[in-house]
Amino acid sequence: MSLVWENFTAGGTEKLAMLALADWCNDEGGSLHPSISTIAKKINVSESQARRTVHKLIDDGYLEVIGNHEGGNPGHSRRYKINIKMLSTPSTHATPSVDATPSTHARRPLAPMRETPSTHASLSTSEPPSEPPVNPAPKKPARFDPMAIDLPDCIPEDAWGRWITYRRQRKLSTTEQTAFAQIEKLVAWRGKGHSPPKIIDESIANGWQGLFEPKVGGTNNASSRESVIAAFTGSGQRQPAILEGYSERLVGSG
Predict the structure, then answer these.
(1) What pLDDT score does 228 carry?
(2) Cα–Cα 20 to 30 A to 68, which of 2, 125, 228, 231?
(3) Is residue 126 part of a domain?
(4) pLDDT bucket at 104, cuts 50 / 70 / 90
(5) What's the domain range around 29?
(6) What digits encode the pLDDT tens for the residues 23-76?
(7) How much is the pLDDT for 226?
(8) In a domain, 54, yes or no
């Protein structure tokens, strides 16, 4: 913990989170597996802010995920490790100590300046042209992580974690647009009295690529889509030409 106090220059929530993590870990920075909710309670912030803070520490290199990368399920929190080597090196931007002895040159009086005729006009012709400033290379945009979304209250974090883990196992990409579209649908179906966790678990159990609204009588969008496909292909017409766009409306964001 002393390394965090001495060499971690960030302040606010990031420093509180680093102090809490340092308090939990062993001397090598390992044996560290707190949940997001535990971190949030420890530093007195919301879970979404705690999640953003942990991701910031990972991006800055102070924290590394070494196990259970997906997290999500209760009892299966991510395993972290603090970068002790990085904390052991004091930052070059650290504020100098107030006890530092000031330079003796600072107390030497300046000699009076003599007034001389301006030679700026003649010197300016011999001065070499200044080089244009070099612009730093733009940073790559941060990779979108669907597990780091601030979820609405009606969608439990563990249920959403199961869905994202399932999609990754099926090698289905979850873009930012796809994730928010699925969340929007779950919220809308919750307003109709359906349970988002049950919808997620049903899609996983049936091996579906998307989420579907439960239907009265046990039907759903997936079965409706299959019946429509069977009807059109049975008529002898070309499936792609007739079903173009219709499948996307049924499957939704899957």
Answers:
(1) 40
(2) 2
(3) no
(4) very low
(5) 2-88
(6) 888 877 777 778 888 989 888 989 898 889 988 888 888 888 887 666 555 556
(7) 53
(8) yes
Residue 141 inside a domain? The answer is no
Residues 158 and 243 in one domain: yes
Query: Are the C-beta atoms of 24 and 32 separated by less than 8 Å?
Result: yes
Among 66, 88, 110, where does a domain finish? 88
> Over pLDDT 70: what percentage of the chain?
64
> Looking at the structure, do residues 83 and 157 belong to the same domain, yes or no?
no
Across 228-251, b (16+ Cβ under 10 Å) vs e yields ebeebeeeeeeeeeebeeeeeebb
Question: What mean pLDDT is reported for the chain?
Answer: 73
Q: Which residues contact 69 (CB under 8 A, 6 or more apart)?
A: 78
| Partners of residue 65 on adjacent β-strands | 80
Task: Give how many domains the chain has, as a whole number.
Answer: 2
**Boundary of a domain, candidates 34, 65, 88:** 88
Nearest-angstrom CA–CA distance, 209 and 215: 18
In this structure, the dihedral spanned by the alpha carbons of residues 202, 205, 206 and 211, taken in order and rounded to 10 degrees, is 40
